[in-house]
Specification:
This protein is an alpha+beta fold. The protein is built from 15 helices and 19 strands. The strands form four sheets. An eight-stranded antiparallel beta sheet has the order 15-12-14-13-17-18-16-19. Strands 1, 2, 3, 4 and 5 form a five-stranded mixed beta sheet that branches.
Length: 454
């Protein structure tokens, strides 16, 4: 491995020589020795380089290759603690100056965006021409490169898929600093999508060409209080069976939402009246302690209004139509220092997965995510001992195995990361190992960040 064979004199002239060369490449303000905050999942870096363009970034990678140094890309750092810690971080390559949006004609089907561009800046720019990306990653301040590198999806994944599905092509740097364009055909697109979720371990993203679409003329959220996973299961099935083309079906189930909620009788005249007159619903407020199921519908005003009315009938007593998203929308249920889990399971088994998580944890845990896709996140307290977290994760995986689901530890305190298998069984590991061997045979790019220690 590169880190193991590096012959740099870290305390003497060798380290200063690397620093001077990085300064020549990036400019005096944009190359330095790393500070206390420059770490990746707890692994400290030696240098930070902020190249001003693709050629400068390529030179940084060539310098690293010449001296057998490891390189880990960093965008805004919103997810820098996700996943496994790299084995070593010699150069932290900050993509903040690899930013900008290509000059596309209004109405063009795609736009090229620099990897270091904040997603919200891209959306604000496109919105001026009535367009948007179908990306709504929850991490505030996330860059396009970071969203792609972690394959971070938000509620819109229900209708439009994840970031990988929005790709038309990418430009990236390989481990030797060669600039490569991928896309424009099936094989090229397969390579581009391979970089999604690779956390910079297969290549350094320079820019991405992404599909754009018109901003919907109208949006409504139909929200209903919920208490139990089984109740959520029945409601989600009803929503999907109604074929109302929702843009998102999201769930927020706090740990406190355990009280059973009595259902209205189907012949209840008051419930029927509320279904016919949604304005009555808007005067109702969410019941204390309840979770929420929220369905987003987008499109033309008349069409969206009609679908929202129908959803009121599908969701039944307690449903309301809102013109803005619930406060928890597009937010994770976990915070800094907690153990974050992602559960992926067929939607027909989502309730079983949530019950399994409760059983393993000894009580309810906060759940939030895309119930309509069977992808949700959960939070465990950061104070739990690592062996207890390992036991919980193992228990959930045992239930999910027979249901074709999986549980991934997204982020966790360092002791938990060391004690727990973050990914569990991964059928794509042989393909991932082959890709790493082909694209980064010397393991210079974020070594250890991928499953299997790759």
């Amino acid at each position: 491995m590169a880190a193991a064979t590096s012959s740099i004199d870290w305390s003497g002239s060798g380290a200063m020589s690397i620093t001077r060369r990085l300064t020549e490449i990036c400019g005096p303000p944009f190359a330095r020795f790393a500070g206390a905050a420059d770490e990746v999942a707890g692994r400290p870096a030696r240098w930070v380089a902020v190249p001003g363009g693709p050629e400068a970034a390529a030179q940084v990678l060539r310098l690293a290759a010449a001296h057998d140094l490891t390189v880990v890309p960093r965008g805004a750092g919103t997810k820098i603690d996700w996943g496994a810690a790299p084995e070593q971080v010699d150069i932290l390559l900050d993509t903040g100056r690899l930013a900008g949006i290509g000059h596309e004609q209004p109405g063009a089907p795609a736009a090229e965006v620099g990897a270091g561009t904040p997603l919200r800046a891209v959306q604000a720019t496109l919105e001026r021409t009535g367009q948007r990306l179908a990306l709504d990653a929850p991490s505030p301040g996330a860059t396009v490169g970071g969203v792609l590198a972690t394959d971070e999806a938000g509620p819109l994944r229900h209708r439009h898929g994840g970031p990988c599905d929005q790709l038309v092509g990418v430009r990236y740097l390989d481990a030797d600093g060669q600039l490569i364009s991928a896309g424009g055909g099936r094989r090229g697109l397969e390579l581009a999508r391979l970089l999604c979720g690779s956390q910079g371990a297969l290549g350094v993203l320079v820019s991405a060409t992404l599909r754009v679409q018109p901003v919907p003329a109208s949006r409504f959220w139909v929200v209903r209080p919920v208490w139990t996973p089984l109740e959520v299961h029945d409601l989600v099935r009803a929503v999907l069976a109604a074929r109302l083309d929702p843009a998102a079906v999201e769930l927020d189930l706090p740990a406190r939402a355990t009280r059973a909620h009595p259902q209205a009788h189907p012949d209840d005249p008051v419930a029927a009246a509320r279904a016919r007159h949604p304005s009555m619903f808007r005067r109702r407020t969410a019941l204390a302690g309840a979770g929420s199921l929220a369905v987003l519908v987008e499109g033309g005003p008349a069409d969206v209004h009609e679908r929202a009315e129908r959803l009121l009938g599908v969701l039944g007593e307690g449903a309301t139509v809102e013109h803005s998203a619930p406060p928890w929308w597009r937010r994770y249920p976990f915070g800094p220092g907690e153990t974050a889990l992602r559960v992926e399971v067929p939607i027909t088994d989502l309730h079983a997965a949530v019950y399994a998580l409760r059983d393993a944890a000894g009580g309810p845990v906060p759940i939030r995510g895309s119930a309509g896709q069977g992808v949700v996140h959960a939070a465990l307290p950061g104070s739990l001992p690592p062996e207890r977290v390992a036991s919980i994760v193992a228990g959930v995986r045992g239930v999910l195995l027979a249901r074709h689901g999986r549980c991934v530890v997204v982020a966790a305190p360092a002791p938990v990361r060391q004690a727990v298998d973050l990914w569990g069984e991964l059928t794509t590991l042989p393909r991932l190992r082959a890709a790493k061997a082909h694209l980064d045979p010397h393991q210079r790019l974020a070594p250890g960040r991928l499953p299997g220690g790759l």
